[in-house]
């Protein structure tokens, strides 16, 4: 809430300053400097108004919302009024400069026809300047279109890379699962071979024992059916 109050105070101060500047433009002896100052303050004004609009979203009290909504509307109207006065001052100053330039470019003894020719010449120069500006704008648009195409191509490449990455990740997961199963199977095979090896060693031991002691019964009498009979 403190932020929106500060923003409101900033806008009130800027409104007073801009009002004084714009109302004094017509009689100002330094109109060009005042126009530059007004432009700078209008930028501050617009930024402060945008910040107030954002801060207004965080206000919870219904009464405060209504109050600052009306202030936002008033500041918006003031901004449009200041811009309108600035445009009028700029156009007036440009017309004055044009007339001054025409007066400087023509002598007092020149006729109306010569004055008209001078005006037509200036008009042609202005048309040429506008043509160059239009050409520059078109070139800028073309550059923008080229950049858009390149961005779309890069986006497609990134999407393709992302799909390939997902596919690689899935392959790695499947490979990991297979390796785990193979590892478990290998461990089981090792256990089986160990048991088989132990059995083989036991049989080999019995055979060797029987070879060394041929008269000794390897099988106990109670387990030998022939001895039992």
Q: What do you see in this structure?
A:
- The chain is an all-alpha fold.
- The protein is 86% helix and 0% strand.
- The chain contains 5 helices and no strands.
- Helix 2 (31-56) runs antiparallel to helix 3 (62-105).
- The protein is elongated, with a radius of gyration of 48 Å.
- Residues 101-110 have low confidence and may be disordered.
Unreliable runs = 101-110
Distance between the termini: 110 Å
Number of strands: 0
**Main β-sheet, in a few words?**
none
The helix/strand order is: HHHHH
Rg: 48 Å
Overall 3D form: elongated
Q: Give me the secondary-structure category.
A: mainly alpha
Q: In oligomeric terms, what are we looking at? A: single chain
Average residue-wise pLDDT = 79
Relative strand content = under 5%
**Count of individual helical segments:** 5
Helix percent reads over 70%
Give a topology summary.
Layout: H1 2-23, H2 31-56, H3 62-105, H4 112-212, H5 225-228
List its traits:
229 residues, mainly alpha, 5 helices
Short description:
Helices cover 86% and strands 0% of the residues. With 229 residues, it is mainly α. It starts with a helix and ends with a helix.
């Amino acid at each position: 809430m403190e932020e929106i109050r500060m923003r409101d105070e900033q806008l009130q101060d800027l409104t007073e300053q801009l009002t004084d500047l714009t109302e004094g433009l017509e009689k100002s002896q330094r109109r060009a400097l005042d126009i530059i100052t007004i432009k700078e303050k209008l930028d501050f004004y617009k930024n402060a108004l945008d910040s107030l609009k954002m801060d207004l979203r965080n206000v919870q009290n219904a009464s405060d919302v209504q109050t600052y909504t009306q202030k936002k509307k008033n500041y918006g109207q003031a901004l449009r009024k200041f811009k309108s006065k600035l445009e009028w001052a700029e156009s007036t100053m440009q017309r004055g400069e044009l007339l001054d330039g025409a007066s400087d470019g023509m002598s007092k003894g020149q006729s109306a026809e010569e004055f008209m020719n001078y005006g037509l010449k200036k008009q042609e120069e202005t048309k040429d300047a506008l043509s160059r500006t239009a050409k520059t704008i078109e070139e800028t648009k073309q550059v923008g279109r080229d950049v858009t195409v390149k961005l779309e191509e890069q986006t497609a490449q990134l999407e393709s890379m992302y799909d390939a990455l997902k596919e690689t990740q899935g392959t790695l997961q499947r490979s990991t699962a297979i390796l785990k199963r193979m590892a478990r199977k290998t461990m089981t095979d090792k256990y089986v071979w160990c048991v088989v090896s132990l059995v083989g060693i036991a049989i080999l031991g019995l055979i060797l024992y029987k070879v060394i002691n041929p008269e000794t019964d390897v099988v106990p009498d109670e387990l030998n059916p022939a001895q039992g009979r």
